[in-house]
């Protein structure tokens, strides 16, 4: 565990140097420990692949004013985190994401299939056959970085990014897959779209996916897609 | 009480001190670019310092106040007038019903803040009234103000009412307060800024000449700069060798270095995480100076230790607390 200042109001706790399950479990257990006992002054925490960034107000950190707020906070964090236990993590949620694959909702499906010598249906089968792990949420509101894409589906980003990818679009970029929470520019290969709102400011939990969640994609027809949309 | 927007200006948005506690969902903190100006403008009208106010960039709006109002301007100087009479920044101003405030030529800084007693009242999204333009939420319908918009204003507190009452009776139009806050809480804006910088996590990855350049060369704010980040031109920085980093937390003031070599200072609407090397972090006390730079303006960095940056931060907070206490003492709400 290593502490590095991120400016004068945040500190990054580094817990590993690779994207792997054991590092991810350490990230989650640090978050759980800080959720349970955040030292005074801590205002936010941001889990990432191999670190947790803790944002704080230096004026509210407790302790002897002879030492800097950073030094005082790090001492308290070390104390709190010295006895975190990974086995106490709650079991992960499994979130099912219905996806209508191909055609105009997934314009790159055939291209991805061609690149891997697969049929479009085989791409869909592989994509829905895997269980994915949300390593972190970042980059834009609700954007989940997911691991677990079958190696056979890893596909380079497109040479020319699209200027506007609709919200809900499911893509593959390199060895990652994910869902665009908002309309945005994007260079991933677009294979389908979910009718679910990935990010909805009117929900208590605005993001559909949170760090540590497991996700599965479930294929639906275009007609089912429209029905989901109408219900929403 | 309401404010009618006559013209919107270039980009006028509602901002407060941002969204706290939602970054793990990828929701940026956002809020005012120049937090000191926002907070002081609020204190001048008797508000809490986190009330929502208007942030006007480069070209200000024209606004009509349907009823009487107590307002204050801070930050950039845009030659504001009330019904044709010039009014200063950093002072409380009482406006009679039907007053129209206009902004003219930008003479200092980039972003003007207009606080109104009671605060601008729009629904909170993730605990904040700040406008987040990229995802189109918060503020007034998630967008910059347009002609015809009507903004609600909250109920002024007793302190605000006391300030308004004194100005109305003791001053002639335009009803500008004779008092202001201590100059120590007013950032010294310029179009040629030296901002203090804490070395970033990856500063050691820079070449030696680039390390020297980071700590002394003059950068220019590029025209592709916005509330999310300022791209700096004029001096290119390079790494000793290319690196691939895992995405992790970034913040307002992070100086990151994309492969092109032009550093980016992340600003109020900074994304929550990033994967570029972080070569520096602007000291919080100097973020208002950076926030008031406009495209073409100059910026240099001077390295400072984390301890010194935090000491400066605590001193600024003490000054603001002192300003708040002084205003509370002089306007106890019973007058």
Quaternary structure classification: heterodimer
What percent of the residues of chain B sit in helical stretches (DSSP H or I)? 10-25%
Q: Give the number of DSSP strands of chain B.
A: 22
Number of helices of chain A: 5
Radius of gyration of chain A: 20 Å
Number of helices of chain B: 5
- Shape type of chain A: elongated
**SSE class of chain B:** alpha+beta
Largest interface: A-B, 47 and 42 residues
**Biggest sheet details of chain B:** 7 strands, antiparallel
Structural class of chain A: alpha+beta
Describe the largest sheet of chain A. Answer: 7 strands, mixed
Query: How many separate structural domains of chain B?
Result: 2
Q: What is the rounded Rg of chain B?
A: 20 Å
Low-pLDDT runs of 5+ residues of chain A are: none
Estimated share of beta-strand residues of chain A? 25-35%
SSE arrangement of chain B, N to C: EEHEEEEEEEEEEHEEHEEEEEEEHEH
Written account of the structure:
The complex is a heterodimer of chains A (232) and B (335). Chain A is an alpha+beta fold and 232 residues long. Chain A has helices spanning 21-36, 69-81, 109-115, 120-129, 222-231; strands at residues 2-5, 10-14, 42-47, 51-56, 94-101, 132-137, 144-147, 162-165, 169-173, 176-179, 184-186, 189-193, 214-219. Chain A folds into two domains: 2-88, Gyrase A, domain 2 (2-Layer Sandwich), CATH 3.30.1360.40; 94-231, Beta Barrel (Cyclophilin). Chain A has five helices and 13 strands. Chain A is elongated. In chain B, the strands form four sheets. Chain B has a seven-stranded antiparallel β-sheet, with no helix packed on it. In chain B, strands 14-21-18-19-16-15-22 form a seven-stranded mixed β-barrel. A six-stranded antiparallel β-sheet of chain B has the order 2-3-10-5-8-13. Chain B has 335 residues and is an alpha+beta fold. At the A-B interface, β3 and β4 of A face β17, β20, β21 and α5 of B.
């Amino acid at each position: 565990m290593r502490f590095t200042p991120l400016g004068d109001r945040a500190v990054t706790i580094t817990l590993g140097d690779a994207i792997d399950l054991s590092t991810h479990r350490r990230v989650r257990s640090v978050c759980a420990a800080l959720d349970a006992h955040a030292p005074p002054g801590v205002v936010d925490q941001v889990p990432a692949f191999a670190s947790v960034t803790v944002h704080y107000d230096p004026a509210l950190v407790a302790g002897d004013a002879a030492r800097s707020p950073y030094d005082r906070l790090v001492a308290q964090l070390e104390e709190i985190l010295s006895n975190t236990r990974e086995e106490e993590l709650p079991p992960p949620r499994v979130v099912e994401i219905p996806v209508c694959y191909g055609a105009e909702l997934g314009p790159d499906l055939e291209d991805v299939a061609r690149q891997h010598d697969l049929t479009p249906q085989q791409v869909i089968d592989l994509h829905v056959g895997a269980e994915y792990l949300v390593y972190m949420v970042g980059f834009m509101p609700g954007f989940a970085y997911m691991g677990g894409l079958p190696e056979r589906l890893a596909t380079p980003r497109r040479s020319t990014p699209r200027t506007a990818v609709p919200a809900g679009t499911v893509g593959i970029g390199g060895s990652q897959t994910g869902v665009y929470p908002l309309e945005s520019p994007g260079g991933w290969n677009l294979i389908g779209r979910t009718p679910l709102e990935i990010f909805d400011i009117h929900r208590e939990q605005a993001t559909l996916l949170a760090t540590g969640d497991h996700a599965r994609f479930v294929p639906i027809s275009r007609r089912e897609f429209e029905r989901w949309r109408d219900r929403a | 009480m309401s404010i009618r927007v006559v013209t919107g200006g270039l980009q006028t948005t509602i901002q407060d001190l941002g969204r706290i506690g939602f970054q793990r969902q990828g929701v940026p903190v956002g809020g005012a670019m120049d937090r000191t100006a926002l907070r002081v403008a609020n204190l001048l009208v008797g508000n809490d310092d986190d009330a929502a106010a208007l942030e006007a960039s480069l070209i200000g709006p024209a606004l009509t106040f349907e009823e009487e109002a107590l307002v204050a301007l801070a930050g950039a100087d845009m030659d504001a007038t009330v019904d044709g009479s010039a009014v200063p920044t950093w002072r409380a101003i009482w406006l009679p019903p039907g007053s129209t405030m206009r902004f003219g030529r930008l003479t200092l800084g980039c972003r003007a803040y207009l606080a109104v007693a009671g605060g601008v009242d729009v629904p909170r999204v993730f605990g904040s009234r700040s406008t987040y333009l990229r995802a189109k939420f918060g503020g007034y319908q998630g967008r910059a103000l347009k002609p015809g918009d009507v903004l609600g204003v909250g109920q002024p507190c007793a302190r605000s009412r006391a300030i308004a009452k004194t100005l109305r009776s003791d001053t002639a139009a335009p009803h500008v307060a004779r008092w202001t806050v201590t100059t120590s809480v007013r950032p010294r804006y310029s179009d040629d800024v030296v901002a203090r910088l804490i070395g970033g996590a990856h500063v050691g990855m820079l070449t030696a000449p680039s390390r020297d350049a980071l700590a002394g060369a003059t950068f220019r704010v590029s025209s592709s700069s916005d509330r999310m980040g300022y791209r700096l031109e004029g001096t290119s920085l390079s790494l000793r060798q290319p690196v691939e980093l895992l995405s992790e937390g970034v913040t307002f003031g992070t100086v990151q270095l994309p492969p092109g070599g032009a550093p980016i200072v992340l600003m109020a609407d900074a994304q929550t995480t990033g994967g570029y090397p972080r070569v520096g972090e602007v000291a919080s006390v100097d973020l208002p100076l950076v926030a008031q730079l406009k495209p073409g303006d100059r910026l240099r960095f001077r390295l400072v230790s984390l301890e010194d940056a935090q000491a400066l931060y605590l001193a600024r907070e003490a000054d603001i607390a002192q300003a708040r206490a002084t205003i509370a003492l002089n306007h106890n709400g019973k007058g």
